[in-house]
Amino acid sequence: MKKTVLITGGAKGIGRAMAEIFALKGYQVVFNFYRSYNEAKELECRLREMGCEAYAIQGDITKKEDLNKIFEFIENKFSGVDILINNAGISQFKLFTEISDEDWDLMIDVNLKGMFNCCKKAVPYMINKKQGKIINISSIWGMVGASCEVHYSTSKAGMIGFTKALAKELGPSGVQVNCITPGVIETDMISTLSEEDKCSLRDDTPLLRLGKPEDIASLALYLSSPEADFITGQIISPNGGMVI
Question: What is the pTM of this model?
Answer without folding.
Answer: 0.97
